[in-house]
Write the structure tokens for this entry.
Amino acid sequence: MAARAGEPARPTMADVAARAGVSKMTVSRVVNGYPGVSPEISRRVGRAIRQLSYVPSQRGRSLAVGRTQLLGMIVLDVVSEWVWPLIRGAGREAERLGYQVLLRTTGAGQVADLRDPQLDSDLLDGLIIVSWRVPLAFSRQLARRGFPVVLIDAFDRPSGIAWVSSQDREGARQAALHLTGLGHRRIAFISGGAEPYLARERLAGFRQGLLEAGVRSLDTVQGDFSRQSGYRLARRLLRRKRPPTAIFAANDLMAIGALDAARELRVPVPAQLSVVGFDDISSAGHVRPALTTVARPYEEMGARAVQQMVEAVRAPAGSRPARQLDLPTHLVVRESTAAPAPQ
């Protein structure tokens, strides 16, 4: 685009090349992150870019490298508290790497409309899928076509597709050791269902921790990761003749639902009941009593997913990596857990 009358001409790639004493092709290689340029020449080009305040043409850059610099991201529901830090981490990392993120949501309880023209692979350089509502068959189909895909916490964990999650099994194990270390033996687990990958991992880790502590029995009930299911199932557990002294819920929403039920039934927490959640969403520290939970690094998960995506986009189609990454979790002890009351 030509400069308007009275405005200084916009610096071009040719200007940068002349200032740095290199060819336009070399400038293009530096700008677009191609290998094979020496550190000294990269520094010269970078210095020339800064001195001239050169901004690469996005349209021209896309044509030159066959990329749009646009990453798609499908999430379940932007209202969910754990989604926002994930989006924030992805957005910051994308901006740092010179990309933009197109965000789409399936909506609560909805299956993604994969015919959405904005999800067209010709528009996007790659797609990050966070929603369980996107069928794995769609991800496999894209991967078979050589289109870069990264999954975050999908319904299941397929091989051969890049994946970012956290060490949920170990986090649940730490939750079990925390409760048994306080002296709890009559413990209930509110699961997120029998099929989702994360629900299975958290149950397996919690069982492992109990076995290490010498606790052989676990009262397991099936929720669906909603606050309503946590409330309903906790009410059922707490109205038994011998109710549990501790409840571990597979996510914070169900744990907060359990706190709701305990409050309604006038069961004091933590004096008579300890409650532990999983995720460390923002409200976990603001409910009363503040919730003991297992924290997941959502911002870092979003950032690492973008890093994996950009690495795949820049790699030749036949050698795109499909790395699977689990980031550490850690236990956050707050007010909702204590030693069980004397029997």
